Every structure is written in C-alpha cells, then in structure tokens.
Amino acid sequence: MLQPKKQKYRKAQRGRSDTKGISYRGTQLSFGTYGLKAISSGEISARQIEAARRCMSRYVERGGKIWINIFPHKPLTKKAAEVPMGSGKGSPELFVCPIKPGRIIFEMEGVDLKTAKEAMRLAGHKLPVVCKFVNGNDL
C-alpha cells in the first residue's frame, strides 16, 4: 500500500480546507490516453487507491499501462475504542490524499476505448468521490 517513506511530522492537523475549491494542478492528462477525473471533493485512502488500481488492472487483464496520479501523504489519527476524553491525540492509523474537483486520479494507455471506459467505471465505484471518464483524443 502507498505511504510516505519519511515525514517531517508524525501527526498532521485535520484541516478540511485542502478539499475546498477546485483543483488547478493535475487537471490535464499527462501520460495516458484515457483518465478518471474527480468531479467532487473528498479524501481517498491508500486502501481505496489500491482497490481501484487492482480492479482496473484485472479488468484489462494486465494489458496496457496504468498511472496513479495521486499519493496519500496526509496521516489520519484515531483514538482507541472506549478511551476517555482528554489524554491527547490518537496514533496515526492511515494515510489519505485530499482530492479537489477536476483532479485526474488515474490514467491509462494501450487499451481500446470500450475496455478503458469500463475499467475506469469499475475503479470509480471503489472511490469515495464522484468521478467521470475523460478521453485524451477528444481534447
């Protein structure tokens, strides 16, 4: 699963402002011909990214090439069950990637349009944000 090798700080503040507004970076296809674009905001965990990637690669029967354009770098903490109020912040549990609308999440190349569209649709169902399929040939 994706996670940073090294971090400056072990615990980060929650800060929900990183999912407000629209994305200005990563909004165009860079590597592949087809892409999966987020049209809502949210946070995608490392497990969700991996589930979507596996879903796509299995559907295309390990053909073509898939790029992951996002990386989960933000740690989320969680307190243990039945812990009283106070006693500090919980320990880091998982890593997430904040997503803004317009961000390209996955890119694909080397497969036909119909296969890519269906693979991206299946991958989109694994993610907590609303996504749409984009075709680089149309742009």
What fraction strand?
25-35%
Query: What Rg, in angstroms, do the CA atoms define?
Result: 17 Å
CATH class of the domain at 44-74 and 92-139: Alpha Beta
Please identify which CATH superfamily of the domain at 44-74 and 92-139 we are dealing with. Ribosomal protein L16/L10
Question: The CATH topology of the domain at 44-74 and 92-139, please?
Answer: Aldehyde Oxidoreductase, domain 3
For the largest sheet, list the strands in their spatial order: 3-6-1-7
Helix content: 10-25%
In a few lines, what is going on in this structure?
This protein is α+β, with helices and mostly antiparallel strands and 139 residues long. The chain contains two helices and seven strands; from the N terminus they run ββαββββαβ. 19% of the residues lie in helices and 27% in strands.
